[in-house]
Design goal:
This protein is mainly α and 297 residues long. It is 73% helix and 0% strand. The chain is built from 12 helices and no strands. The longest helix has 24 residues. It is globular.
Length: 297
């Protein structure tokens, strides 16, 4: 069944996702004594249980339609890479800086969506990309030493996420959101548990609480974001998610007295400016169903 774009629904889902992922970042930091891979597994294990219940209530195949499984697997692999890189960045950067770098993903979404989905990349969006990547460089502050590694890993999370989000757009009218998230969680757990088990140490009671919060907030954020991509073009939905930067900055300030330096703040302003420019653009394809990627099948 073909879906009709619904901007109000997309905005609501995207904002819910933004708040949830900012909260997730807080729990990732609180549980920092637990290994990154362990946190990724617990995050997706909780999401797996939640989405399994939802999927089983429907009539769709548990692992999606056979023809869509290669795309579901590719989305899952890209998603795993993005989560691991993002958790690493949260551990080593200010919460706001990690969020800023992760939110470079919409710019990669716009590029990948133009290349693979045929969504329009006009001059205004090109200008937005320049602003966004310039802001990213100001946050990264590239230098020829190891101090740049966490920021580069944070930027890598955006590349992985950009590819994953474009696949969400491709799958939006082919699979239900809960199926996409379920397969992602299943691939993560099955793929990483054998790696984690040999050195696994049971977390303390307090750490289990943080991990539970991490998993629940991630599940809500993932389901809301996947639903948002079913109601608007990939580039536009992802731009709304920039509000995560604001929420992350507020949480970082309230909980850890973190204040990004002037260069990072300036970079964040450029990234947000790029998002505003790109989101404000009016796509000619929006009013012509025949020109939408999904209309071309």
């Amino acid at each position: 069944m073909r879906l009709v774009d619904s901007p109000p629904r997309a905005v609501g889902h995207a904002l819910t996702s933004a708040v949830s992922f900012a909260v997730m970042g807080v729990f990732v930091r609180l549980a920092s004594e637990v290994g990154i891979l362990e946190r990724v597994v617990v995050r997706n294990l909780i999401t797996l249980v939640i989405t399994l219940v939802v999927v089983l209530r429907g009539s769709r195949p548990l692992l999606g339609e056979r023809r869509n499984r290669p795309f579901l697997l590719a989305r899952s692999v890209l998603g795993i890479g993005g989560v691991i890189c993002y958790f690493y960045a949260i551990d080593h950067l200010l919460l706001a800086d990690a969020a800023m770098l992760a939110k470079l993903s919409p710019f990669f979404v716009a590029i990948f969506a133009a290349v693979f989905l045929g969504e329009q990349l006009d001059r205004r969006l090109a200008a937005a990309l320049v602003l966004g990547f310039a802001g990213g460089l100001m946050v990264i502050k590239p230098e020829l030493d190891l101090h740049t590694v966490p920021a580069l890993v944070g930027a890598a999370s955006a590349v992985f996420a950009g590819g994953a989000y474009v696949l969400l757009r491709f799958l939006r009218d082919r699979e239900a959101p809960e199926t996409i998230v379920f397969v992602f969680s299943l691939v993560t757990v099955v793929g990483l548990v054998p790696v984690v088990l040999p050195t696994f140490e049971p977390p303390r009671a307090e750490q289990w609480l943080w991990l539970l919060g991490l998993g629940v907030s991630a599940a809500v954020g993932q389901l809301a974001l996947t639903a948002a991509y079913r109601h608007a073009p990939a580039g536009r939905v992802s731009l709304i998610s920039y509000t995560t930067i604001v929420f992350a900055a507020v949480f970082g300030w309230l909980l850890w007295d973190e204040v990004p330096d002037l260069l990072s703040l300036a970079g964040g302003v450029l990234i947000l400016a790029g998002a505003v420019v790109a989101f404000a653009r009016r796509s000619p394809a929006a009013g012509d169903p025949a020109r939408r990627p999904e209309a071309r099948g």
